[in-house]
Protein 1
Amino acid sequence: MLKFITRSLISPNFPPDLLPLLYQPPSLVKFQPRPVPHPSHLSIKPILDPSHPAHGQYGLFTKRRISPSELIIPYLGIIHHTFIPLDDPNSPSEAGDTAVDEEQESDYDLSLVRISSHDPNNPRKGWHVSIGVDAAKAGNAARFVNDYRGIAVSPNAEFRIGTGEGGEVRMEIWSLKKGLGKGEEVLVSYGKSWWNARRTDGS
Ligand SMILES: C[S@@+](CC[C@H](N)C(=O)[O-])C[C@H]1O[C@@H](n2cnc3c(N)ncnc32)[C@H](O)[C@@H]1O
C-alpha cells in the first residue's frame, strides 16, 4: 500500500557513513528535512482518456498557471543506496549524469547522488556509491508525474537536483521555459535510458 509522506525517509539499511553525502558539501549533520505539505497548486487525477498512454493510472495536474522556471514540487520517497563494483560499466564515471536510475526495478526510483570510488568524499574505498530516492512504496504527489511521450510533443517540466530547507540534497520538479497553464498535466522526460531499460519488444 502506498504511504503519503511529507519528508523523505531513510531506508532502514542505509549506512550512516553515507549520510553526509546527502549534503553539499558533504557534512556530518543529522538528516532532518523540513516537511513539504501537499502543494495547493497541484492535483493527482485519474487518467480517464483512453488515448492517453497511462490510461487507467494517475497523473499530476496543475490547479493554477505555473510560471516559467518555477519549482513545482519536490520529489519525496525512500532514500536508499547501492555499492557499485569498480568494473561495473554503469559506474558513476561511465554512466554520466542521468537523473533517472535505470538500474532499479522500481518505476518510481530516481538517482540522487553518484560518487566515484576515487572521490575524496567517498567513505567506501573500492566502491562507487549510488544514492537514490524511490517513491514506489512511500512518496508525495510528485510520484504521479508522467513522461511526455505519447501525450505531448515535448515535456513542460524537468527533474532537477535541488536543496531542501534542511540543507539536504533532493530531487525536484521544475517547470520549463513556457510554464504551464491551469489544468495542464505536468510532464517530464524520464530519459531514453529509462525507456530502453523497460523495452519488452527487444528493440
Ligand atoms: C512514476 S510513475 C508515473 C505515475 C503513474 N502514472 C501512476 O499512476 O502511478 C511511472 C509509470 O507511469 C506510466 N507512464 C508514465 N508516463 C507514461 C507514458 N508517456 N506512456 C506510458 N506510460 C507512462 C508507466 O506505467 C510508468 O511505469
Protein 2
Amino acid sequence: MSIQITKEGILEALSTVEDPDLKKDLVTLGMIKNISIEQEVSKTTVHFTVVLTTPACPLKELIRNNCEKAIHEKYNESVRCQITMTSNVTTVRTGKILPEVKNIIAVASGKGGVGKSTVASNLAVALAQTGAKVGLIDADIFGPSIPTMFDCESARPGVRQEGDRYIILPFEKYDVKILSIGFLAPPDDAIVWRGPMASSAFRQFLVDTDWGELDYLFIDLPPGTSDIHLTLVQTVPVTGAVIVTTPQKVALEDVQKGVSMFTQPKINVPILGVIENMAYFTPAELPENKYYLFGQNGGKILAKRNDVPFLGEVPLVQAIREAGDSGTPITAQSEYSGNAENIETLKNQHHAVTETFKEIAQKLAQSVALRNAEQNPTEAVSLR
Ligand SMILES: Nc1ncnc2c1ncn2[C@@H]1O[C@H](COP(=O)(O)OP(=O)(O)OP(=O)(O)O)[C@@H](O)[C@H]1O
C-alpha cells in the first residue's frame, strides 16, 4: 500500500530541521523549494531543493542527512528522498546604488601594514573559487597594493559611454572583478590623491561602475579612519566590516578605534568578524613550530571584547609574502612553484595556508548569512 504524502506534510517534517549556523528551521528560513511527490504502487519518492545561504556550504551533507531523517521519521524508511542542494547568497541591501550587489564588505584595520590587502585579496579569490560572484575595490589611497598583488599594475579599467554618463568597467583576474585607486594615479602621485579627489574617484567606483551581479563586493579600506571610510558609508549601505589585526597590543588599541568607528550609532555597520594576521611565525624548515613573535590571541581577545565572531588566524610565512609580490595571491596558486631546496616542506606550508584562507572565507560567508538573517539592513549614513 502506498503512503499518503502531501507537500504540507513534507514541510511539516522539514520544519524540524535546523540550519546549524542560522539556528532556525529550514522552512522558516525559506530554504525549501520545488517540492514534488512521485507516487507509484510500490514506492514513493519525494523531490525538493534546499537553497543554502553560502556557496560551498561545509554543512551541506549534514543538512541533507537531517532532511532525509526527518522525512523518514514522519513517514517511513521506505520513502525515497531526492534532494537537490543549491545555494543563493542572501542580501538585505536596499537602495538605488548597486542594486545587483548583494553584500558590500569593508575590510579595515586600525594600523597600516597588518596585511589587510593580503587578506582581502585571498578572501576574494577563495570565495570566487566556491562559485560566488566577487568584486574587490582597492580604496587604499595611502598604498594601493592590489594592482601588485594581482599583477595588473599597468591595467587601466575600460569605460563605456551611456548618454552623457561614463561607466567604468572593472578589470577581471582570478574570477574577481577589480578596481583600484592605483589604476588612476601612478604610485608616486598617490599623495596628491588624498582628500576630496580620492573620495570622488572612490565614489565613482561605487556609483558609476558596471559591477554586474555580485554576491560579495570587498572594499579594501585605507588603514585607520579616513574620508574614504565616510564616503563609503555615506554612499552605500554596507553589509558589514571585517577587521584585520596583528596580535600585538599596540595594533589592538588602534584596531579597537576602527571597530568603534563602524559600530557607533550614527554609522551602525555590523562587524562580521576579526581576522588575526601574522598570528605566529612558522619557518618552512620547522613546520611544526609556532613562534608567537607579536604575542598570542590578540585577535581572539578583540573579538570577544566586542562580542563579534573570530574568523581565524593566518600565520606569518614567506610563501604569503612571495605570492603577494609575485602578483598571484596564494589561494590562486595551485601549489608552491618556487625552486627552493626544501620544496616538499614549502609545498606543505603552501597547502596549509591556502586551506586556512579558504576556511576563513567560508566562515565569513556564514557570518554574512547570519547577519542577513538576524540583523536589520544597514542604511547609508546621512551625516550633517
Ligand atoms: N601572513 C603573512 N605572512 C607573510 N607576509 C605577509 C602576511 N600578510 C601580509 N604580508 C606581507 O606584508 C606586507 C604588507 O601587507 P599588506 O599590503 O597586505 O598590508 P596592508 O595592511 O594592506 O598594508 P597598508 O596599510 O600599506 O595598506 C606585504 O608585503 C605582504 O605580502
